[in-house]
């Protein structure tokens, strides 16, 4: 039994399965991946890098219809992750409206030969951008493809901060910068608002004076309308009230006298037949009601007053209210609300100088704290930059880059940014005798992967991205260097799940999981397949990679030696 190597001491977060359908020469394959180091091997041209390219679709790379397998309608790439150990990612999924299913996150993209491309998160429709965001939080891909995090803006700064132990300090600077931006936006908003109010302050004061000067009372117009009606019909009201008083109470044959007579009659009869008593009570109540109504008519008649002067006064007041309602209404309540709004705007103008000065003071206070924190962060970064550069440069010769130089350069900014006082740049000279230049200018896919491997080796414990994918990392190396690269990847795989495409037997032999890529035929078309190797099949593949005859006992013994002792 061949002993497995490189089983990582990981949490549960990892890529558990990758499924690819109708992508390039892949018809339908499923890769089951385990923790630690996963090696993907096979003959040149079998389609190893195609698999990595398919994975890159889930990390935000642009989709082209050219990747769809000939004769198929669409290509599909789907990856399943166990994200139980990433509460931060689960929180972000909640923000985006997705939930892990039993701790699993499934990302899927579909590229159509014709028509619209689509994407899903846990079976729910999503955008390619969202899939790329979640995928990039889980996987770092290094190699010949576009998705190379080491070249991203800000990534180099974040690596330096992780090494320096200044991630929280950098987050504090970012928070202060965002607070400063928010205060500045509020100050701008308040200043624009002040100018807006100030430009029409005279008009607002006119409105305030006009409305307040009217001394309006809620419901006043309705009360005045009723008073006008009483004045205009005073004679009619007085005559009617008098007639009602006479008929009900004061005149000959008044209703009250008639009711009293009938009540007295029934009262006498009720002494004979008690069943009439309820009728007597009703008549008694009616009598008192009629008497009270008659008396009220008399009192009302005393209040009716036809005052022409008061009528004119009320009409003038109603005319004023009508004009105000026409300007600010349509109802009197609207006029009162407008008056309140105008008063509040003018109060805002009066208080604006104090508020603006308070905001300016706060902005200066936050700016000062930002400068101090950024300067402190810069000091930590400067101290760490030389140490990181020296450690990376010390590893590069072992990784097949003898004479390489690595530099971490801090370039001051004119103004403090969200990232601090400086831009952080990684520079490398891949060969002796050359001046270091930015990675994007001088590093090939293999060199870039090895620089990243050196960084990941140094930062393995602090790195938050759980899955690392390396393609082309073994380009142009062998012998002792190959063994060093294998050892370094093995060490990194203690902290991460590592997926590597390789031609190196030294590297493949250290993998906890060994996958073989083979090209065959499906019908009349070429097709790539993948199968997991174990036992003698793995011995045979490592023997082939060693360059000897995989059937010979010598090659197989050498392969067993690598698998058993590396």
Descriptive notes:
The protein is α/β, with parallel strands linked by helices. It has a domain at 169-381. The protein has 18 helices and 15 strands. The chain has helices at residues 48-56, 87-96, 128-138, 155-164, 167-199, 201-213, 220-232, 234-250, 255-272, 277-303, 308-328, 332-395, 439-442, 445-459, 479-492, 505-508, 535-545, 553-565, and strands at 14-23, 26-32, 37-42, 74-82, 104-112, 118-121, 124-126, 139-142, 405-417, 420-429, 437-438, 467-471, 497-501, 513-522, 525-533. Strands 2-1-4-5-6-7 form a six-stranded antiparallel beta sheet, with helices on one face. The chain has a six-stranded mixed beta sheet with strand order 8-12-13-3-14-15. A hairpin with a 2-residue loop joins strand 9 and strand 10. Helix 4 (155-164) crosses helix 12 (332-395) and helix 8 runs antiparallel to helix 10 (277-303). The protein is elongated and about 145 Å long. It starts with 13 loop residues before the first strand and ends with a helix. The model is unreliable at 1-11 (pLDDT under 50).
């Amino acid at each position: 039994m061949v002993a497995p190597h490189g089983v990582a001491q990981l949490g549960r977060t990892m890529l558990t399965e990758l499924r690819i359908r109708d992508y390039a020469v892949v018809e339908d394959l499923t890769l089951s991946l385990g923790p630690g180091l996963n090696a993907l091997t096979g003959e040149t041209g079998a389609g190893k890098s195609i698999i990595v390219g398919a994975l890159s679709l889930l990390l935000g790379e642009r989709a082209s219809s050219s990747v769809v397998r000939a004769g198929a309608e669409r290509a599909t790439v789907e990856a399943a992750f166990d994200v139980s150990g990433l509460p931060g990612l689960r929180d972000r999924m909640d923000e985006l409206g997705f939930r892990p299913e039993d701790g699993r996150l499934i990302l899927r993209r579909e590229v159509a030969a014709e028509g619209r491309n689509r994407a899903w998160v846990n079976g729910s429709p999503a955008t390619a951008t969202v899939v790329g965001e979640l995928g990039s939080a889980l996987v770092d891909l290094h190699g010949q493809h576009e998705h190379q995090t080491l070249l991203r803006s800000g990534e180099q700064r974040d690596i330096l901060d992780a090494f320096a132990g200044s991630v929280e300090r950098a987050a504090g600077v970012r928070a202060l910068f965002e607070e400063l931006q928010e205060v500045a936006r509020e100050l701008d908003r308040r200043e624009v608002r002040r100018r807006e109010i100030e430009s029409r302050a005279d008009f607002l004061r006119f409105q305030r004076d006009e409305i307040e000067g009217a001394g309006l009372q809620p419901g006043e117009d309705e009360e005045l309308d009723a008073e006008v009606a009483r004045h205009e019909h005073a004679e009619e009201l007085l005559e009617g009230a008098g007639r009602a008083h006479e008929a009900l109470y004061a005149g000959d044959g008044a209703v009250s006298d008639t009711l009293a007579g009938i009540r007295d009659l029934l009262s006498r009869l009720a002494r004979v037949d008690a069943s009439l008593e309820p009728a007597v009570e009703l008549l008694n109540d009616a009598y008192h009601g009629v008497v009270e109504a008659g008396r009220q008519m008399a009192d009302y008649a005393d209040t009716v007053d036809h005052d022409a002067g008061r009528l004119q006064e009320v009409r003038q007041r109603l005319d004023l209210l009508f004009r105000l309602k026409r300007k600010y209404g349509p109802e009197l309540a609207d006029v009162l609300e407008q008056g309140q709004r105008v008063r509040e705007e003018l109060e805002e103008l009066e208080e604006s100088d104090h508020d603006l000065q308070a905001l300016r003071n706060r902005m200066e206070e936050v700016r000062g704290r930002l400068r101090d924190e950024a300067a402190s962060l810069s000091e930590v970064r400067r101290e760490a930059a030389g140490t990181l550069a020296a450690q990376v440069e010390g590893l590069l010769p072992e990784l097949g880059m003898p004479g390489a130089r690595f530099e971490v350069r801090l370039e001051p900014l004119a103004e403090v940014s969200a990232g601090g006082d400086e831009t952080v740049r990684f520079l490398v000279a891949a060969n002796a005798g050359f001046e270091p230049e930015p990675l994007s200018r001088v590093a090939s896919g293999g060199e870039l992967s090895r620089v990243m491997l050196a960084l990941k080796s140094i930062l393995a414990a602090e790195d938050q991205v759980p899955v690392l994918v390396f393609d082309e990392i073994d380009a142009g190396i062998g012998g002792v260097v190959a063994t060093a690269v294998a050892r370094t990847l093995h060490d990194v795989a203690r902290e991460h799940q590592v997926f590597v495409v390789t031609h190196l037997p030294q590297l493949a032999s250290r993998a906890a999981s060994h996958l073989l890529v083979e090209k065959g035929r499906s019908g009349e078309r070429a097709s790539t397949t993948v199968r997991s190797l174990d036992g003698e099949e793995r011995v045979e593949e490592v023997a082939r990679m060693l360059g000897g005859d995989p059937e010979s006992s010598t090659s197989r013994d050498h392969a067993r030696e690598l698998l058993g002792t590396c």
